Every structure is written in C-alpha cells, then in structure tokens.
C-alpha cells in the first residue's frame, strides 16, 4: 500500500480510538509523577529489561516484591562484585523473564554505569540536564542493552515533555506496519511515518504509541475489514 494511503487509513481508525480511550490515556499520563523518584532511572531500566521481548516479564521482576527488593540499587550496592552478579543472575532466572542471563549482564552493566555516574540521583540529574530529546536518547543509549526503542520508552513512560512526539517501535507496531504493507529502511523513517499518522489523527506521538501498544488488537481488527 502506498505510504500516504496507509497513513490515511490508519489515521481514520486512530481518530475513533482516541475519542473512546481518553480516560485510559489520561491515566497513563499520570505516571509522570514517577520522574520524582530518586531511583527513577534505575527503576525504569529494570522495568525495560523485565518487559523486553515479553511485557508479562514485569510481573516476575517488578511486581513481585520479593524479587524486586533483591535488586534495588541500594541493596546491590552493599554487595561485593561477585555477590552482586550472583544475585542479579539468580533473580532474573527466578523471575522467569525472557533471556534471563543476557538481561542479567545488561542489569549488571547498568549498575556499574550508574555507579560511575555517582549513583541513581546523580545519574537522573545527568539525564535530565541533557538538552532536548536527541541528547537524552544519546545518554540513555550509553547504558548496556538500551537501544532506540527503550531510549524513548523510558522517558515516554513518564510522559516527559521532550518525548511527546516519539514512537517506541516494537513488535506490536511492526505488526501494524506489516498489515498496512509498509516497510522502512531505518528506525527514524519508521518513527516519522507514525508521527505523520499522529498528526493526521489529531493526537501526539505519545498518544498514538500508547493506543497502538494497548489496543493493537482493535487496530488490527479494524485494518482487516
């Protein structure tokens, strides 16, 4: 399908969903208060690895407090290097997240990077001192395991003002693109396609992203007619 036709088709569906999902979108925007957490960056890095590849991983690593309490930054900081690594690997396996050993390596690397930055509060301050979206994305991509999607999604999860015209492209959004019959040579081209859909739908990029993430089934059903 030609790009413009695909954008028009999807925007008609999004306009309807945006009107019917206002309350849920507003509820998600209230997550902005999490930005006040001193451990904001550490917490959202953990959440990123918990959900990477399978969103249900959040239950085992974040919502299960027995597991989560074992890998707070403050707890890990008290351990020796060997004990810290053992604890992270153990928790990732017990939490049954996808690719536990690979993600344990990422978490351990992120811990070391945050430690080098001076701890969670200092790392958060360094992130927020970055001017503009692109600077913050570059900063976040310095953390092991964080690519273009999660460098956006971490800030989108707290509805940060610099990321309200961003798209965290994942397998769900790629499946919508496949249904539309469009493909892209780069992340930025893919993101720009959806930002134009957002503009035509009368929503911002964040709102479109959350609609596609939370209501993909409804979008795909509408596209199948």
TrEMBL record:
Q: Does the keyword Manganese apply?
A: no
What Gene Ontology molecular-function terms does this entry list?
A: endonuclease activity
Q: Which UniProt keywords apply?
A: Endonuclease, Hydrolase, Nuclease
Look up the signal peptide feature and give its range. none
GO biological process entries: DNA repair
Alphabetized InterPro entries for the sequence: DNA_glycosylase, HhH_base_excis_C
Keyword Nuclease in annotation: yes
Superkingdom of the source species: Bacteria
- Know the name of this protein? Putative endonuclease
């Amino acid at each position: 399908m030609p790009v413009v036709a695909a954008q028009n088709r999807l925007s008609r569906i999004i306009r309807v969903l945006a009107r019917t999902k206002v309350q849920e979108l507003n509820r998600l925007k209230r997550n902005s208060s999490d930005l006040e957490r001193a451990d904001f960056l550490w917490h959202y890095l953990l959440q990123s690895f918990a959900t990477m590849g399978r969103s249900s991983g959040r239950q085992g690593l974040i919502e299960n407090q027995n597991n989560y309490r074992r890998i707070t930054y403050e707890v890990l900081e008290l351990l020796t290097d060997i004990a810290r690594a053992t604890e992270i690997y153990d928790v990732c396996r017990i939490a049954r997240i996808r690719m536990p050993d690979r993600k344990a390596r990422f978490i351990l690397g992120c811990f070391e990077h945050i430690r080098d930055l001076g701890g969670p509060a200092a790392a958060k301050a360094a992130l927020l001192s970055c001017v503009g979206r692109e600077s913050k994305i570059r900063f976040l991509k310095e953390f092991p395991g964080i690519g273009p999607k999660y460098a956006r999604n971490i800030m989108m999860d707290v509805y940060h003002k610099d990321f309200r015209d961003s798209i965290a492209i994942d397998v769900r959004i790629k499946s919508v693109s496949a249904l539309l019959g469009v493909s892209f040579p780069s992340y930025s081209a893919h993101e720009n396609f959806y930002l134009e859909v957002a503009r035509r739908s009368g929503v911002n990029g964040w709102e479109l992203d959350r609609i596609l993430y939370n209501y993909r089934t409804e979008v795909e059903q509408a596209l199948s007619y």
